[in-house]
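pasting for the record
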Amino acid sequence: MTSEDFDPNRIRKDFPALDQTVNGKPLVYLDNAATSQKPRRVLDAIHNYYEQDNANVHRGIHELSRRATVAYEEAREKVAGWINASDPSECVWTRGTTEAINLVSVAWGLDHVGEGDEILISVMEHHSNIVPWQILAARTKAKLRYIEIDDDGRLVLDDLGSLLNERTKVVAISHVSNSLGTINPVKEITEAAHAVGAVVMIDGAQGAVHTKVDVQDLDCDFYAFGGHKMCGPTGIGVLWGRKELLEVMSPFQGGGEMIHIVERDQSSWARVPNKFEAGTPNIVGAVGMGAAVDYLNDIGIERIEAHEREIMTYALQQLGEVPGVKIYGPKSVDEHSAVISFTMGDAHPHDISTILDMEGVAVRAGHHCAQLVMKHFDVSATARASFYLYSTKEDVDRLVAGLDQVAAIFN
């Protein structure tokens, strides 16, 4: 497939869930920032694993265990390639982005952050990249500091130099805002953090989905992302970390697979990444995520990104012309990933979502696990339309037509 023949309508045929009606209308799915739909290739990979290869991994001698282990570790190699990790062993399987961030906050944080130290995050963060650091700060008596955002939903980096100092131990920042779609200059922030000796944790839940990620080029220390927003199954994600950091970190959980030798009074740990993968893993989740990476690679992340830019340009223009609609986040599509948060007059976002659902249009409404963002803009919630590789301009037109119904009901 070339950029010229990228056809979202053809791609849609790979996604069975998109071929249905809701309330008698063809489904328009615009809740991709919450979770994406799954192509048949991923569904088939999950089905085939359970039907043919279902066994536990690593320690089994029999053929099914061998095949399951091969599939599991091949999937690790695929996700490593997706983010250009130098070594697949730097990729730790987790339940998702949230668990990956918690793993770092506990396994790295408790050993490296102490009383009087500082943790720097931003007002823009998803709760998954706020609450774990609040817990760490409370346990260690460290100080939590924030990068503010401006009225266009961008990080205020003018004061970054004063926020960073020799006491800063970790900087945790989102690659892309889930609530505003803001694309953050994470490479610049990483460079500034490293200059004072801090490690950098990047929440890539919305980043690795929509743009090419190269962790070696970003030069960050940890990068977390999940499978279910990028055509894979739920309950599976990846923590990438520098191997030298992972090797000195304490285990996150104890149990089978993560040990080397168990004695009566003490144990030694398995090598990375097994040290962080206690118990029976989500094998089929890894297999499904690997299949999703294959699918997206066949299309090409650059082509997906170009298509989403075209859709976002159209959507920002069309929504900007709807009376009463207020869009939150950067105005330039160059700073804006595939998310648009908006309000519409006096209509509550939950009412907007309900009326759109009656028209077969699925959007999300609420605070999007970003209550600090909502407080900044003095709103309790927004409606959020989010796009992906199978989104079309016709989807945008259906969204706008649905908002006409909102306007009619709320006068």
